[in-house]
């Protein structure tokens, strides 16, 4: 489980601002499920999804996402993992392949998290941010993700990863603007 608690260049949970936010969200709570829900709701509701608000900057590292309060799904998942890890909750990354513009459009990855709760094991959550037609919630053991699997449109990528996929980090690091990144969203070579 140690790798799901690690501080890394992207999941930089030891950054002072990240630790401060994580501890503020946890308060004096001892229940990991309660703390996880507080962290999830805060990232989902208080950190804007770049596309929803049309902010041009591209964020990647958890501390960067926290400072800017904006990011794509991938970046928001990096921040959520950091907040959870700072509170001693094992957290990893999950992905879905999604056709964002219908069944004839190109595939791209959608990033979300899994966290470990003793009562339920690994539990997936999606802090992408709610909007019309997209509603994600924290209600273990049931999953309420932004995108439900639909044949030919949304496919789950198997596994829980301790680190963000390199293809995701590379895309977030390569492009300087949201417009550029949206034209080159990461996907798996399948």
From TrEMBL:
Record-linked SMART domains: TGc
Sequence ranges assigned to domain Transglutaminase-like in this UniProt record: 65-129
InterPro entries: Papain-like_cys_pep_sf, Transglutaminase-like
UniProt cross-references to SUPFAM superfamilies, sorted A to Z: Cysteine proteinases
Superkingdom classification of source: Bacteria
Entry protein name: Cro/Cl family transcriptional regulator
Organism: Alkalilimnicola ehrlichii
